[in-house]
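Late entry, evening session. Most of the bench is empty. Finally got around to the prediction I had been postponing all week. Sequence below, unchanged from the version circulated by S.P.
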Amino acid sequence: MTKTYGEGDAFPDFTMETPDGGTLTKADLAGKKAVIFFYPKDNTPGCTTEAKDFSALKPEFDKAGAALLGVSKDSAKKHQNFIAKHDLTVALATDAAEGGLSDTLGVWGEKQMYGKTFMGMIRSTYLLDEKGRIQRVWPKVKVKGHAEEVLAAVRGG
């Protein structure tokens, strides 16, 4: 049985690859709020809009003391191209092909499009407090207005 992670739970530990070939862990985010948004694929319309929206608001998230992290299963090289192509300022990380953070959280799962069922990333966002506990979860995110809504939650709205 898979554990469901919700508000008040400790966010699971993780280690993910960054576009520069380094690694990022949960401990790297300790001491500040963190917004971790999971998205399906670099350079697709919805994902590009979401990453650009978060990038545009990054100075506001910084002022509010919150780190931003976008996560997909795309490779570090694909992330580098995505960042360069769209002038993204949000940090991105690559989740493991199998058994990674998205699997642990249940945001890697069955999706349907055009009558076909396939495995994919379910667009979801987690807001963590300074101690790494989940403050809020947005499951099955709709992109329009999402970054603004998350910023309001970070600010306590």
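Two things to note before I forget:
The two ends are 34 Å apart (CA to CA).
The beta strands are 15-17, 23-25, 33-38, 66-72, 91-94, 108-113, 116-121, 124-128, 134-138.
Will write this up properly tomorrow.
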